[in-house]
Structures are given as structure tokens and as C-alpha cells.
Design a protein that fits this description.
Strand order of the largest sheet: 1-4-3-2-6-5-7
Order of helices and strands: HEEEEEEEHHHH
Number of strands: 7
Radius of gyration: 45 Å
Structural class: alpha/beta
Largest sheet: 7 strands, mixed, barrel
Number of helices: 5
Distance between the termini: 139 Å
Shape: elongated
């Protein structure tokens, strides 16, 4: 008899515990699906939902504010999505808000992300249709990354080939770095060029003092001096004309005295 009572007591405790867990689970799921709070509905139309499912979260400002209630085809190119949103955020979502499809991480579950819109606009009403932004497909991202990786591989291979050629003394740069004779020839050429320039300067200075060319250089110097003098006279004349014009203008101004 005591054993039977102990068994019934354990069975009753297990049943109560299971009931509490079931109620808590129902409440949690219902809260996540917005079954118990005040809600309103919004709609959006996409060309592709990119794997979005009924029950996926709807986010606004980074916070889960609703869920996807229904997804169905309207035409062969458009998909209608119905969302259930918590009523307390309705006043923050404006009629020019945008709905787009994102994901939780790179390969995570799909979610709908609602941007708030202009704060000066009117808030959305129940059953309004939001404007949408086309989602970026994961396949497109992967294809772009693959193209970038392929291009990087080609560039790396080309750089490796160039470095190998330089190390083996191929090409002008490789010969310049590895062939000491070529480097010595270039240094000698630059040295000879500097000597030639210095010699040319000396010859020009000697020519200025030469009996045959002295008159030519003197005439050239005199002509340059005359040109500079003429230029200075023109500038002086221009300044004087400006002063005369200013003096004439001041003279013609009314004195402002009354008779």
C-alpha cells in the first residue's frame, strides 16, 4: 500500500511538471509567433524570396518585431509575403519604408529587414504594401568572390614569373641588377657626360673672351640690356597712366558742399 501511494505521488509530480513545461513551451512559441499580443499585418512583393520561409523573423532596427505569416505566388515573376508585426512598433514604420530580405550571417536563415523611412511621413496602416529592395543572392556573392580569387591567382602567377626572370638576369632590369659590367658602363657614361658638360661650360666662357667672338657676345649683352630697359620703361609708363587716371577721377568727384 505505501508503495502504491509513492508511485501515484511520483506520477502526479511528473504530470504537473510536464504540464508546466508544455505551457511554458506554448507561451514561448506563441510569443515568438506573436499569437498572444496585439498585431497588425504588412505585405511586400518580391521577384524572389531567396529561401525565405513561413515563420522567418521580421526585423526593424535590428530587433525581431514580427514573423512571416504567409508566402505565395501572385504571378510567374512575383511572390507576395504577408507579415505579422507587433502593434507597438507600427508608429515607427513609415509609408516610404523599404522591406528587403537579409540573412543571419553569410549562410544563416533568411529574415525580412524593414527600414524605417522618413520620420516626417505618415505611419503605415494595417494591410499596407511596403516597397521592396531586391535581395543579393548568395550565389552572386560566391560567384563574385570566385572571380576575384581567380584574378588574384593570375596576378600572383605573373608577379612570380617576373621575379623569377629578374633573379635569373633576364630582361633589362635583371641584367642591370645582376650584370656588373652593364652597371659599370652606365656609371662610366654618366661620368663622361658630367665631364663633357663641364668642358662645354669652359669653352663657352673662353669664347666670350675670344677676340673673334668678343664683339658678338658684347652685342648680345647690350641688346638684352636694351630690352630690359625698354620693358622697365613700359611698366613705369603704365603705372604713371594709372596714377593720372586716378587723380583725374578724384578731381571730377563732387565736393559735396552746399552753396
Amino acid at each position: 500500500m505505501p508503495k502504491e501511494k509513492n508511485y501515484k505521488w511520483k506520477l502526479g509530480l511528473f504530470a504537473v511538471t510536464a504540464l508546466v513545461v508544455a505551457v511554458a513551451a506554448i507561451y514561448y512559441v506563441g510569443k515568438q509567433k506573436n499569437l498572444f499580443g496585439s498585431v497588425f499585418h504588412l505585405n511586400a512583393v518580391f521577384h524572389s524570396v531567396s529561401g525565405l520561409k513561413v515563420g522567418s523573423n521580421v526585423r526593424f532596427g535590428g530587433i525581431d518585431v514580427g514573423t512571416v505569416d504567409d508566402i505565395h505566388l501572385t504571378t510567374d515573376t512575383t511572390v507576395a509575403v504577408e507579415m505579422v508585426i507587433q502593434h507597438e512598433v507600427q508608429r515607427f514604420i513609415k509609408q516610404d519604408a523599404l522591406a528587403s530580405i537579409g540573412s543571419e550571417g553569410l549562410m544563416g536563415d533568411k529574415v525580412i529587414v524593414i527600414s524605417p523611412g522618413d520620420s516626417g511621413r505618415v505611419a503605415v496602416r494595417d494591410a499596407d504594401i511596403l516597397q521592396t529592395h531586391a535581395p543579393i543572392e548568395t550565389d552572386q556573392i560566391m560567384a563574385s568572390l570566385k572571380t576575384s580569387a581567380d584574378n588574384a591567382a593570375v596576378i600572383t602567377a605573373n608577379l612570380a614569373d617576373i621575379a623569377s626572370r629578374i633573379n635569373h638576369g633576364q630582361g633589362a632590369l635583371g641584367k642591370l641588377l645582376r650584370d656588373t659590367t652593364l652597371s659599370s658602363n652606365i656609371s662610366a657614361t654618366m661620368k663622361n657626360l658630367r665631364k663633357s658638360t663641364a668642358g662645354l661650360d669652359s669653352n663657352m666662357e673662353a669664347a666670350k673672351h675670344s677676340f673673334l667672338l668678343k664683339g658678338y657676345f658684347k652685342k648680345a649683352a647690350k641688346q638684352k640690356e636694351e630690352e630690359q630697359k625698354k620693358k622697365d620703361q613700359e611698366e613705369q609708363k603704365k603705372k604713371q597712366d594709372e596714377l593720372d587716371k586716378k587723380a583725374a577721377a578724384d578731381k571730377n568727384k563732387p565736393s559735396g558742399k552746399k552753396n
